[in-house]
Specification:
mainly alpha, two-stranded antiparallel ribbon, 16 helices, 4 strands, 3% strand, rod-shaped
Length: 430
């Protein structure tokens, strides 16, 4: 009996000396090898309040990985509990804090979609926007050093979720604008213009609408400078800048918009002047005068305008006003021919230009109306350098392997060979 008493006392003493058992554990499962679970990684169980307390304790111990897991477990097992929205929001915050940006954005999105009436709604929208800007500014999505997705595409997705889930929120207009910025950085200019236009249409009173309107003009402006005589891009840029100056005349970007407009107008004037000189050299003076007058109309008082006026006076003095009058419009001349020769229009070949100053139709003043490939824009510039206008039959691209070749304009292809025109005597050279 005394032996048993002594044995019990020894066991009690041994147990008192043994340190508190570690949280680490060995998990045995039927048919599987034993699995060691590190401290803090054991399965989390209990009701919502118990799991929430587990997460709080893990946070205090700076075990953020376990805290995130506990918060997410609470939401998964008890989605309708009053603690679920707060747990999900805290999980998103910790994910963002530990630079798990994509999971953080997904947790914020889950919060605003599933718990729209929770008190953290606005903070969750702001969290999404904050993560989106991280990707917009160049954060890479990588797995073991290998890119697995485009950061800009991820940014567009996050900003689009902000616009969708909070259409009248504090960050909605800026999120829509940032979609345009991301697409512009990708060189997807059509998508960028659509995004910027949505800002102007839906949020005209927001300060960011000023920048959106300017960016629309700037994208078209850059396309007109890098394209091959693209008149449509130049016209679209002029319209966008004129709209900008009309709606926001006191903007700090108004001076830059006026400067860009001057560049566009000067380029258009210069192109018209080149066409006029081309016809003048070919001794098609009637066509030359039409384009000289276009130069005067486009930029009165410019150097080209003064040269155009001087040349028109020389031609008028030598040839007279009658010889420089515009020809009969194509529709009228064709109608007269059909009436004079009924049934004779079919089977006839294309009309050939005759001698200078005849009534042959003149080619239009505009160049190609098709758009060039989208231009990649430099991030910190607001004006692109103006390239030299193309000479007939030459290309304006600095890289012949990548840029589209510039074909001769309708004005150039429609003009006859110089040898076909009769000589004019004692007329000053253009």
């Amino acid at each position: 009996m005394q032996f048993l008493i002594r044995l019990v006392l020894v066991l009690i003493a041994v147990l008192a000396l043994v340190p508190e058992p570690s949280r680490a554990s060995i998990i045995f499962k039927p048919g599987q090898k034993a699995e060691y679970v590190p401290p803090g990684e054991e399965a989390i169980s209990g009701n919502a309040a118990e799991i929430y307390q587990t997460a709080q304790t893990a946070e205090k111990e700076n075990n953020l990985k376990r805290a995130i897991r506990a918060y997410k477990t609470l939401v998964k097992r008890h989605p309708k509990d009053a603690l679920a929205p707060t747990a999900l929001f805290r999980a998103a915050q910790l994910q963002e804090q530990t630079r798990q940006y994509t999971p953080a954005a997904e947790s914020y999105l889950q919060l605003v979609e599933r718990y729209a009436s929770n008190p953290h709604f606005d903070e969750a929208i702001e969290g999404q926007f904050r993560v989106g800007e991280i990707y917009l500014n160049g954060k890479k999505l990588k797995l073991l050093g290998i890119p697995i997705a485009s950061a800009l595409d991820r940014a567009v997705t996050i900003f689009a979720n902000v616009v969708r889930t909070a259409p009248y929120g504090r960050y909605t207009a800026r999120a829509q604008f940032n979609i345009g910025m991301a697409r512009e950085k990708q060189g997807a200019n059509d998508a960028a213009i659509q995004a910027y236009q949505a800002v102007v249409d839906k949020f005209p009173n927001e300060p960011i609408a000023v920048d959106a309107q300017y960016q629309i003009g700037y994208i078209w402006f850059s396309a007109s400078q890098l394209g091959t005589n693209d008149a449509a891009a130049a016209n679209n840029a002029k319209t966008a800048f004129q709209d900008f100056l009309f709606h926001y005349p006191k903007s700090e970007k108004a001076a830059q918009a006026r400067k860009d407009l001057d560049i566009l107008e000067h380029k258009q004037t210069n192109n018209s002047f080149k066409v006029a000189k081309f016809y003048d050299k070919q001794k098609y003076y009637r066509a030359a005068v039409i384009y000289y007058n276009e130069v005067i109309r486009q930029q009165p008082g410019s150097e080209e305008s003064n040269k155009a006026k001087k040349r028109i006076d020389q031609l008028r003095a030598k040839l007279g006003d009658a010889a420089l009058q515009p020809a009969i419009p194509v529709s009228q001349s064709a109608k007269k021919k059909v009436e004079a020769h009924p049934g004779g229009a079919e089977g006839s070949g294309p009309a050939k230009p005759g001698a200078p100053n005849n009534e042959a139709p003149l080619p239009p003043s505009d160049g190609e109306s098709s758009l060039p490939p989208p231009a990649s824009l430099a991030p910190d510039t607001t004006t692109a350098p103006e390239p030299l206008p193309p000479l007939p039959g030459t290309s304006t691209s600095s890289d012949p392997s990548n840029a589209p070749k510039a074909s001769a304009s309708p004005e150039e292809s429609a003009a006859p060979e110089e040898s076909a025109a009769p000589e004019e005597s004692a007329l000053p050279a253009p």
